[in-house]
Amino acid sequence: MVKWGSLARNLCSGLILIILSLPTWAKASVTICVENTEFSPFNYFDRAQSVEPRSIGYDIDILDLAFKETLLQHKVIALPWNRCLKEVKQGAVDAAMSASLNHERQRDYLISAPYYYLTPSYYYLKSDFPQGVQVKRLEQLKEYGNVCGIKNFNYDNFGLSPNFHLFQIRELSHLPDMLTKKRCQFFLARKETLAGTLAINKMDEFAARLVGRSTPDTQPEPFYMLISKNSPHKETIKQLFDTKVDRLNKEGKLQNLLEHHLQLLNQIK
Where is the Solute-binding protein family 3/N-terminal domain positioned along the sequence (predicted)? Predict the structure, then answer.
C-alpha cells in the first residue's frame, strides 16, 4: 500500500531542494534602490572599499536575508532619492528602501510591512538658545527663527501643516552648517539617522553643540519598502520581505541588527 502522507512529504522536500538549488541564471532578477546621499545606519557606503563605493547597512542586510535562497536575485543601486522614487513608480526599478508614508506614496506604490521606526525631532545650537526651546506644536518654532529640512524628504509625520514654510536644502550633512551661518535656527531630522550622519561626516565636536527634542504630539515614525505596482515580481517581493521581517522581529533580531550598524558607524575614524 502506498503511504500517501510520506510520499507527499518526500515530493515536497524534493521540490524545495530543486528550487533552492536553481542556478543563478534561472532566478528572476530584481533591482532595489537606496538613497545615494546615504541614510545611515540603514544604508551608507562602505568606507573600507577603496575602488567603487558599496552600499552597506541595515537595509542591505535585511534584503540579503529576505531573498537568500529564493527565486529572486536582487541588486541594490544608489540613486538620488527623487529619481529612486520616480523609477520605482514607473517600474524601471522594482522597489525602494527606507521610505516613510504620505497619501501620495500610499496611492502610487505597493507598501511593505514596516520594518523599523524613527523619532521625528528638531535640533538647534545650545549657544543660540541657552534657556532651551520647547514648543507644544512644531509650527511654533517659526516664532524663534527659520526651520530647515531636506528637499524631497517627507515631513508629513512631523505634525506640520501643509502650508508651513520649510527652508529646503539638498543634503542632511549640510544642515549643521546652516545653523552656524544663521540661515536657519532649527532643522528637522529623524533622531537615529542624524546620529549616523554626524558620525559618517566626523562631526562629533559639532554634535556636542546641538540640542535635540522630539517633535510634540507625534508617534515613532514607521518606515517601509515601496514596491513598484508595475513590477512583475511585486507580490513575490512583498511576500518574501514581509515574511522575513516578521520572523526577524519575533526572534528579536531586528534591534540587534540596528545596534550592530550603529556600532560600526561609531567606529568610523
Answer: 29-265
44-45 and 55-56 beta bridge pairing:
antiparallel
Q: What are phi and psi of 98, to 5 degrees?
A: 55, 60
Burial 61-86 (b: 16+ CB within 10 A, else e): bbbebbbeebebebebebbebeebbe
| Phi, psi values for residue 185, rounded to 5° | -100, -20
Most distant CA pair in the chain, distance? 86
Mean pLDDT by 10 residues, the chain (269 residues): 47 44 66 91 81 85 94 94 96 98 96 96 95 93 93 88 87 79 92 83 84 92 97 97 96 91 76
The neighbour count for residue 248, using CB atoms within 10 Å, is 19
CA distance 160 to 157: 8
Q: How many residues does the chain have?
A: 269
d(CA 47, CA 221): 29
> Grid coordinates representing 213?
527634542
The torsion angles phi and psi of 13, rounded to 5 degrees, stand at: -60, -40
Closest-CA residue to 215 (of 98, 131, 132, 123): 123
Report which of 219, 230, 203, 99 is spatially closest to residue 158, judged by C-alpha positions.
219
Contact 45, 186 (CB under 8 A): no
Asked if 144 contacts 182 with a C-beta cutoff of 8 angstroms, the reply is no
CA angle 63, 21, 28 (to 5 degrees): 50
Distance of alpha carbon 89 from alpha carbon 105, whole angstroms: 9
Cα 73 from chain centre? 21
- CB-based contact 154:108 (threshold 8 Å): no
